[in-house]
Amino acid sequence: MIRDRRLSTDELRRIDAELRADWPTAEAVDFDEAVAYHESLPPGKQFASVLEGADQPLLQPRAGVPRLDDQIELLQYLERDGGADLLPVTIDSYTRDNEYEKAQTGLEETRETGTDELNGFPAVNHGVDGCRELVEAVDAPVEVRHGTPDARLLAMVTFAGGFQSFEGGPISYNIPYTKEHDLEETIEHWQFVDRLAGAYTECGVTINREPFGPLTGTLVPPSIAIAVMLLEGKLAATQGVRSLTLGYGQVGNVVQDVAALCALRDLGEDYLSDEVTVTTVFHEWMGGFPPDEARANGVIGLGAATAAIARPDKVITKSPQEFQGVPTKEANAAGLRTTRQLMDMVIEQDIDIDGIARERQLILREVRCLLDRVEELGDGDVARGTIRAFESGELDVPFAPSDSARGDVLPARDDDGRVRIFEFGNLALDEEIREIHVARLDSRAETEGRDRTFRMVADDVDAISDGHLIGRPSHEADADPNRGESDAD
Length: 489
Prior knowledge:
Layout: H1 9-19, H2 31-40, H3 47-52, E1 58-60, H4 68-80, E2 87-90, H5 93-96, H6 100-113, H7 123-137, E3 142-145, H8 152-160, E4 165-167, H9 183-202, E5 208-210, H10 222-238, E6 243-249, H11 254-271, E7 277-283, H12 293-310, E8 314-316, H13 329-346, H14 356-377, H15 382-392, E9 410-413, E10 419-423, H16 431-448, H17 454-463
């Protein structure tokens, strides 16, 4: 079984040599020359220093189109008209599946027809020179955002191409994204990605790494998401990563979201060494959006207000066209501006919300239960413990397609809209914590005059897209909001 150990320089070089046969653009990757290129970039393009030096949350959208000139135009628009502080390059699906030949075909068809035949930017196909042209065409730092279980070649090309931040990880880009990839295999692949990032860092070029916090994006209990972030952070730190941005996806209850972001930062500092600079990123709502753009802006506004109170280092914004799929550049920029407006108004206020401290303590207890069990299962080895925990179901992610996860955990909202655990499976939480979750869901069932059944889970999945936070039966949709607070408050 794989172990949580740093790859040697010889192993790094051996894997690098093997990957060069996967696609011709890899031959242009020259590590020493790439380090020199990064050193030539101005301070405003140094991703880690810009993020870590910010005095308020920075905004970053999602955006990826196939052609280089279109991607440049898109990012310039989001920077100029949307006011984005940090920029993304969202990678296409073929590249995520390591199908570079299909990505090349799609790119060529796009060039011929003028119609996008890919759902993102095929960075490997554009190669080192294409990536550098993009980096040089904008003022803000750029991050690679993708969803790739085996991101080794993508990391090689984009790091050499001047990108200084790379999203994802072996758990967060396996369990929520793919069915058949083995977790041990993805940990091994991501050890190379993180070791390569560590090698650049050791040469003075800090590569920021960002595990994907929302996971499946569907009512993920905060403690599960945070536990995964910390495990991926520890695995990355072993390989020499020194700039880590731990992610969290909005669940919609302000108290719980603010408490979770506070807990995420605290736990990151507790579980990661002092050598690692920990920042946090808040993803605006990743679930279904209302089809009406005005209502969608309301969802975005709630995320912006939450971010202004919690003050993460970065916010990933959404657009009012989320319901229809890929937004126009205008809608993407509008989502940035909506978030900016709400944040600028709320962040100047000293808002004290009752219950955040108690909810934070509950999340801290839950995360420590999960991580303690991972450590026990791995005899102190994070990689082995993670694999064994997912095999046994003692760590699990709701609605995950991966065969490496049990998928037995199900979430539902309580009477205040906080995400609780409806079905625990074999999740490594103690009995007292379980009783809190059950009691909160029983209280909601009593309020709604129905049994605590799977129907609550299904109703909650669709609730925000239907215009509510909690998926109550139709006769309860406008129920009295003055219900008693959770005991966890």
